[in-house]
Amino acid sequence: MAVDAPRISLAGSGALLLDGAQGAFSDAVQQRVWAVANAALALAGVRETVPGMNNLLVLFDPLATDATDIGARLGSLWAEANVTQVAGRQHAISVFYGGARGEDLAGWAAHCGMPVEEAVRRHAAATYTVAAVGAMPGFPYLSGLDPKLAWARRSTPRFKVAEGAVIIGGAQAGIMPMTAPSGWHIIGHTDAKLFDANAESPVLLMPGDTIRFTVADIAA
Q: I need a surface site. Which of 16, 18, 54, 83 has the fewest CB within 10 A?
């Protein structure tokens, strides 16, 4: 099946950014991103691949290869990728909506033009896919948010958003794996542990995993 060619651009002296998006986020494009990320690791000179939301950062050794060659090979991999459904794990994550650790819940519901209970119901009704993990260890970029629940990120980020915060940023959902700055809106919290540096498998969620949120409580 024919696919649109990605945009490939320099991202420094030793990296290329492949952008497969042609508008809104696409699960099919994301699956191709995962396939190319795996295949590109076999290219001579490639050091690392980092999948993002419908994009892929490829880091290479500029002393061993050059951007033109890597870019051409990435274009070929994109066109010829053997795209298969990633068999990720399924997770049920309990969320306490609102309260002191979900301070943006009422404002978010008002922005969406619906009662709090309806916004929470829609948020918990969706099945989310971990499209990418990044920004900080264990942070999941989740696709699958109901478009009616989208809310552009804050113009001024908070300096401290607590571990476990359940958040909305634009058309994406997420969960904070640790306490850190963030411009996403906080609608609740979970006790699920997304990152543990001392665990045998430090990161709970991986690309291709799916998540269903369950409502533990809704607080004003």
A: 83
- How far is Cα 52 from Cα 210, in angstroms, rounded to an integer? 16
> What local confidence, expressed as pLDDT, does residue 97 receive?
98
pLDDT tens digit sequence for 96-118: 999 999 999 999 999 999 999 99
The model's pTM: 0.86
- Spatial neighbors of 213 by CB under 8 A, at least 6 apart, are 92, 93, 94, 95, 123, 124, 126, 128, 166
Per-residue confidence at 2, pLDDT binned at 50, 70, 90? Answer: low
Going by C-alpha positions, the residue among 165, 28, 181 that lies closest to residue 173 is 165
Decide: helix, strand or coil at residue 64. Answer: coil
Measured from the Cβ of residue 92, the count of other Cβ atoms closer than 10 Å reads 10
Cβ–Cβ contacts within 10 Å for residue 176, how many?
Answer: 25
| Burial environment of residue 182 by CB neighbours within 10 A (0 to 12, 13 to 18, 19 or more) | buried
CA-based nearest residue to 51, from 168, 129, 126, 123: 129
Q: Whose CA is closest to 52, among 138, 111, 140, 123?
A: 140
Coil, helix or strand at residue 95: strand
∠ CA 203-147-140 to the nearest 5 degrees? Answer: 5
